[in-house]
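Retro notes, item 3 of 5
We never archived the inputs for the guanosine-5'-diphosphate complex last cycle. Fixing that now. Sequence and ligand:
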Amino acid sequence: MNVQTSPEAQAVERRRTFAIISHPDAGKTTLTEKLLLFGGAIQLAGAVKAKRGGAATRSDWMGIEKERGISVVTSVMTFEYGDHVFNLLDTPGHEDFSEDTYRTLTAVDAAVMVIDAAKGIEARTRKLFEVCRLRDIPIVTFVNKLDREARDPFDLLDEVEKTLALDTSPVTWPIGSGRSFAGTYDLRNRRVRLVDKDDAGFTVTGADDPRLLGLLPEHERDAFHEELSLAEAALEPFDLDAFRQGHLTPVFFGSALRNFGVRDLIDAMAAFAPPPRGQQAATRLVEPTEKRMTGFVFKIQANMDPNHRDRIAFMRVCSGRLTRGMKARLARTGKPMTLSAPQFFFAQDRSIAEEAFAGDVVGIPNHGTLRIGDTLTEGEDLVFRGVPSFAPEIMRRIKLTDPMKAKKLKEALQQMAEEGVVQVFQPVDGSGAIVGVVGALQLDVLKERLQAEYGLPIDFEPTRFSICRWISSDRAGELDKFVNAHTSSIALDLDREPVFMATTAFSLSYEQERWPDIRVSDVKDYQ
Ligand code: GDP
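Structure as it came back at the time:
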């Protein structure tokens, strides 16, 4: 008997939870729209993100996002395609919100890397790829914008291999590019798909087939024939294990704008991308097919709908079955919590989740009970690790124009820190709170939200600090000694863990030399 037949195991097998990583403008939004169209999740492409003055959409809820035409928030979109349930976790495009993106990438099992065919690997793609590599997340590559002038396919594959140290395995090969872009050729089953008719196609005998070469203008045929012959000669069988271990990426060529190549991509995600994998907790590995529900919160979003002031915690279910109304245990406090209205999100809508399985992402409405990094279980005392916090690169003191509101500010900052909007540090010498961010736009978001949601007008003042590191020590008493010797440079984070704030890189390394038993870290896992 097949042991993999429990409802949980069947549900897990169908799920694909992924994100798209790319450099701004490579086509992530366009591709997202097209993927959602395939899933029937939206009727009209263009509904995901109304850029620069288009109609407002759900993901456009925040004033700042509308103003700047950038996607500030991370959200999730669930859609079904064929036998599979896809959970696409959206990540903010702007690098100032990279913390959000990094946290979101802890909740996916695979990623699609979108590359602009004319530009190749760009800075942000590389950065995000490195984050994926930390967890060996399998990557499927989509080379986009073949309908424009593109770089040579070999050149692009070579760049992926060299700059990312990632093996490539082309699945399709572009037939021409720019004006002469005719379609793609599947290298293994020799199937041709034509632009604008991607649901049909025909099989040819290989690179020599006149039906294939006839798709291109005469003067391009010889070069294409040579190129494709080389590609076919170099072709190896697709190594699924190497892909799933994060060492090799299958590569597709297409045009998101023309909705071409997207079907092959989504089919590949269904066929190759792994179902939800086990998640590491502090004490053990949690398998997705376990009976009892577990999950962790990687994102908090407030005020998604201005008509209902709510706060939604996005939780990735890691095992078992989450059902509406179930009682869960919040690991951080040990307290019970009833999941009375868990929600699923679609491109334009959300609905109550009656049940969810490993790999699914549910939104849990709450009034501040849940924070980023929280673990929920069905009773077990278990904590997932690995939703990181990054050392801020910009630190500011907050100047409150109305000092009577200091208490309100403190509460508001606590909330913002729990949501991951900014990090808040309380200096141990009793001076005013310091906020730390990785990207400057986070400060704008903080300022706008404090004003809009709490009626707190604030300004920022520079601090003398430019570097912040979490500190710890294995040697008894050493940390206290260090703290006492540096009181004006020590602050406590949200969990009351100490950080050392340095004015320059030089002063940090000077202290490190003098205090070899103090460990400094620029990343912290949430508890
Ligand atoms: P994002 O910043 O990565 O989300 O990129 P967008 O999806 O917003 O695309 C950036 C620009 O490139 C937009 O003007 C798109 O219309 C355009 N674009 C996206 N995909 C394609 C494509 O396949 N071909 C062409 N020619 N343009 C595209």
